Amino acid sequence: MTDPLQDPQFFTDPYATFARLRGAAPVHKVPTGSTGRYSYVVTGYAEAREAFADPRLSKDTARFFTGQPSRRDLHPAVSRTMLATDPPQHTRLRRAAGPAFTPGPVARMRPYITEVVDALLGVWAPGDQVDLVAGLAVPLPVTVICQLLGVPADDRTMVARWSNELFAAGRPDRIDAASHSLAGYMADLVESKRREPDGGLLHSLLLRSAAGELTGDEVVSLAVLLLVAGHETTTNFIGNAVLALVRHPDALARLRDDPGLIPTVLDELLRFDSPIGIATFRHSTEALVIGGTEIPAGVPVLIAPGAANRDPARFPVPDQLDLTRDASAQLAFGHGIHRCLGAPLARAESEIVLTQLLTRFPGIELAVPSENLQWRRTRLMRGLESLPVLL
């Protein structure tokens, strides 16, 4: 059996594969590469929610790979982020970074987000054909997170390119090189904030470091993680949401006529085409049973929010975009202690984008056939390479 998660068709439309796997069992054993190894993929909603919260599924990649030969050269600031830790280390790191992404600070960012969206949309005019990914979905989130981190404006395009390279599926050389470039840059930026404090997010992390709550390496690693996670998911969310709406003219018309509904339908847009297809790495520390499937100790367990959000047992008629649906239980941002730290910021950015976009360009439509769209070749992220639209 070949790995169904590496089929080229999976990157274009993973939902048929997810449905097939879920139809056989909510937790499915699949081969990994051509080495005879295997993983367990969790595709059922109830099972995914359970797995997200199960402490027997560890995020500590160093623990899993200890003693295994590796040909990779990932920088430790990328390979050993908060996402690759368990409590109590994870608890301590999340406590350090968390305050910047609570509702209060996010609300204070809204005027800046609106200003950036205005500037990006201001160069477009009715009748234009534009790439919504390159012109809006990419620059907005990276600009916002770079502003929070204090990345100079002239460096942001370069930083975004390195971040994108970290997801170059099938190109470990490019991923490793990008990890060193990004980590080196962030180490220099952290040091500059140490010399010249600016009161920003990195400065707050440095204060925690001075108090003994974080090491210097942890400050750099958190900076890298916040940069990457702070825009990649939102970029995909914006692109996927706009595509879903232009493919469903009735839904688009409803939001165009009543933009006040946009905050209430974000969960359905997240559910319908989750920006995260398969969550980051976990492994079993002991034998366990999920969804009636026995999972031995010491194997990778891949939780698929993209599959769980289309589980008909939780969301009836899941392949239909239904703006009246209560999708607040969707798992696009995960669940439990590892739930996406930046979810409030991602929601704020997406809400402002959709409101401004539909207000300025109410007649937006897809400029190419759907089958011509190119998707990123990574099973972690679910996002478009480009989205040509006619305004």
Oligomer: single chain
How many distinct helices?
17
The description of the largest β-sheet is:
3 strands, mixed
pLDDT below 50 for ≥5 consecutive residues: which ranges?
none
CATH fold name: Cytochrome p450
Instruction: Report the structural category.
Output: mainly alpha
Instruction: Name the helicity range.
Output: 40-55%
Q: Name the CATH superfamily classification.
A: Cytochrome P450
Radius of gyration: 21 Å
Q: Assign an overall shape.
A: globular
Return the domain count.
1
Organism: Streptomyces albidochromogenes
Family: Belongs to the cytochrome P450 family.
Protein name: Cytochrome P450
Pfam families: p450
Give a written overview of the molecule:
This protein is mainly alpha-helical. It has a single domain (about 5-390), classed as Orthogonal Bundle (Cytochrome p450). Helix content is about 50%, strand content about 10%. The chain contains 17 helices and ten strands. The chain has helices at about 10, 15-25, 45-50, 60-65, 75-80, 90-95, 105-120, 130-135, 140-150, 155-165, 170-195, 200-210, 215-245, 250-255, 260-270, 305-310, 345-360; strands at about 25-30, 35-40, 55-60, 130, 285, 290, 295, 300-305, 365, 390. It has a three-stranded mixed beta sheet with strand order 1-2-8. Strands 4-10-9 form a three-stranded antiparallel beta sheet. A hairpin with a 2-residue loop joins strand 6 and strand 7 (about 295). Helix 13 (about 215-245) runs parallel beside helix 17. It is globular, with a radius of gyration of 21 Å. The termini are far apart.
